[in-house]
Design brief:
Oligomer: heterodimer
Order of helices and strands of chain B: HEEHHHHHHHHHHH
Distance between the termini of chain B: 40 Å
Number of helices of chain A: 15
Low-confidence stretches of chain B: 1-16
Structural class of chain B: mainly alpha
Shape of chain A: globular
Structural class of chain A: mainly alpha
Mean pLDDT of chain A: 86
Helix content of chain A: over 70%
CATH topology of the largest domain in chain A: MetI-like fold
Largest sheet of chain B: 2 strands, antiparallel
Strand order of the largest sheet of chain B: 1-2
Mean pLDDT of chain B: 85
Number of domains of chain A: 2
Strand content of chain A: under 5%
Low-confidence stretches of chain A: 1-9
Order of helices and strands of chain A: HHHHHHHHHHHHHHH
């Protein structure tokens, strides 16, 4: 048995291995438990949430019915979808055009502009929200989708990512297209964009996630209930006196679903996108 | 700087022979990158760069949003440094951030080392499962955890009561509330940092590891003397990222505790939010947010120097 092992120090003993694997599974169940709990609780009426049991006695759908019938949840869901999808779309346009300029052109001011974008990332969001709140109030733009879409579309991270990807495209290709008489804009649309599709998809998803999960922005800029996005709406339900936990859990479960769908459909891009920038050190 | 506010459109499509009309052609060529930059920088200027600079200017004014700002010199900063609640908020933030940075990095790194082990089955599945919490919004996470931490109806209390134990009211006790918030944050981000560390681990030369093992180094010695030094850059990245994100903590205490009990979980950003949007002291809030920015920048630089120096 011992002889069968090749790099002896490489593999810990089977007992230790089993122990570590079990520990990992235990940790995983701790990680998944809150969701299971939320799901279970969403099927419990108020009385059962207060009682000591873990599983619902009868799987009760009242919380979900109430969520859609008595709260503005459907409207918040719609708002979240509108805002996040538009931010992702506009963001893909902005980040790809901007990223292209940084990746494939030399021009005066390039370093300065790029440095500015990078520096902005480390400033806490509240520093920008304070003056914007005053300005938007004056312009009458509070409670509009615009204030939630545009800032997320101008994503520093997205720009950076597009630049990284586009700088790997061969210059010869661009030169060849220019020699063939291709206009700059058409070159971008027909040569550069199709080649950058993977990065573009990742940027779109990342902006979508950032916008979907954002709390500070809608909290500050959306002052009327029918313009709330999901996080603000759910936080509102939660802060009511006599919070209806079953209802809140139903709201939490339903708002996780779109995100989980997106995640499982595009797992690779999401993980690669969220962790990129790290390994280059 | 971008000069034209028209969206990026086609400059000269008819140009077929680049050699002709050099002067105007060159001008057009020189404008092309700026046209591509215009849409991004227009919005970036309005929503990020502009407000960041304006915020600094507003921090020297009294500004209540509707009326015009009025210059008051350094009064906001003087008031800020005289306010005990600001120190409480800053202290809470630093304490929770320190705890979070240590725990999140330890958890992420250990998880990554475990997942990187060559004998580990279904590594991919584990990786995905641990990453999942990161895709859910902080607010949703917080409301779910409310029903875990809650006094007698929470999952923790129910689990403890099975063993006949009684835990504290996690969120109502000033000693445990910050810990509960930090634990939730670690739960949410552990898998994310594990994946970053995992990528770093895979970049550490396997020849080096193999050589150390052949020389009879124990697994712990390999980790300590070969893997960890190779991970320095990734670790620096993770430490800085966890620090910045924790110093900007807002969503969790806002939803879970509203800063309570008795300001025990009031964070710096929450303080800024209250001053700015509940008391409408926008100038004062801008001053507070600039002090926080300064703290963040100084800490990031210190970490860079400290972790970078050991790199040699």
């Amino acid at each position: 048995m011992i002889l069968a092992r090749r790099g002896s120090a490489q593999d810990p003993s089977p007992v230790l291995r089993l122990g570590l694997l079990l520990a990992l599974c235990a940790l995983l169940s701790v990680v998944l438990m809150p969701w299971v709990w939320a799901l279970l609780s969403s099927f419990k009426p108020r009385s059962e949430i207060m009682s000591t049991g873990f599983l619902p006695e009868v799987w009760h759908l009242g919380n979900y019915r109430d969520l859609f019938a008595t709260t503005m949840y459907p409207r918040w869901l719609l708002n979240s979808v509108i805002v996040s999808v538009s931010a992702a779309m506009v963001g893909m346009v902005l980040c790809s055009t901007g990223g292209y300029a940084f990746a494939k052109f030399r021009f005066p001011g390039k370093t300065l502009l790029f440095w500015m974008v990078i520096a902005s990332v480390s400033i806490p969001p509240f520093t920008t929200v304070i003056p914007l709140f005053g300005w938007m109030a004056k312009l009458g733009l509070l409670n509009t989708y615009l204030v939630l879409v545009l800032p997320f579309a101008a994503s520093a991270f997205g720009l950076f990512m597009m630049r990284q990807y586009m700088s790997t495209l061969p210059d010869e290709l661009i030169e060849a297209a220019r020699i063939d008489g291709c206009g700059e804009f058409r070159l971008f649309l027909t040569v550069i964009l199709p080649l950058s599709r993977p990065a573009l998809g990742t940027v779109g998803i990342l902006i979508f996630i950032a916008s979907w999960n954002s709390f500070i922005w809608p909290l500050v800029f959306m002052r009327s209930e029918e313009m709330f996005t999901l996080p603000v709406g759910i936080a509102g339900l939660n802060s009511e006196q006599m919070a209806e936990y079953g209802l809140i859990m139903a709201a939490a479960v339903v708002s996780c679903l779109p995100m989980l769908l997106v995640f499982f459909a595009m797992q690779k891009q999401i993980i690669a996108g969220l962790t990129s920038g790290a390994v280059k050190g | 700087m971008p000069r034209r506010a028209t969206g990026g459109d086609a400059p000269g499509r008819l140009r077929s022979r680049p050699g002709r009309r050099p002067a105007s052609w060159r001008l057009r060529r020189a404008l092309v990158p700026y046209l591509f930059l215009t849409p991004f920088f227009l919005l970036f200027g309005i929503f990020w760069a502009g407000p960041i600079l304006a915020s600094f200017a507003y921090s020297f004014t009294e500004w209540r949003g509707i009326t015009a700002p009025e210059f008051v010199g350094l009064r906001n900063y003087a008031d800020l440094f005289a306010d005990e609640r600001f120190y409480t908020a800053l202290g809470n933030t630093l304490w929770m951030a320190a705890l979070y940075v240590v725990l999140a990095n330890l958890a992420g790194l250990s998880l990554a080392l475990l997942l990187d082990a060559p004998w580990m089955p279904t590594r991919h599945l584990f990786r995905t499962a641990f990453f999942l919490p990161m895709t859910i919004s902080m607010v949703v996470t917080a409301v779910i955890f409310q029903l875990i931490y809650a006094g007698d109806i929470g999952l923790l209390a129910k689990l403890l009561s099975v063993f006949g134990l009684e835990g504290p009211a996690w969120l109502r006790d000033p000693a445990t509330a910050p810990l509960a918030i930090v634990a939730m944050r670690v739960w949410r981000t552990m898998g994310y940092y594990a994946i970053i560390y995992l990528a770093g681990l895979q970049a550490v030369s396997s020849d080096l590891k193999e050589a150390a093992r052949l020389d009879g180094a124990s697994e712990w010695q390999v980790i300590r003397h070969v893997i960890l030094p190779g991970l320095k850059p990734v670790m620096l990245f993770c430490v800085i990222l966890t620090t910045i994100s924790a110093l900007e903590m807002f969503d969790e205490p806002m939803v879970l505790t509203q800063g309570g009990p008795g300001d025990a979980t009031l964070t710096a950003v929450m303080y800024v939010y209250q001053q700015g949007f509940q008391f409408l002291q926008l100038g004062y809030a801008a001053a507070a947010s600039y002090v926080l920015t300064l703290v963040i920048v100084l800490i990031s630089i210190a970490q860079k120097l400290w972790l970078g120096e050991k790199d040699r």
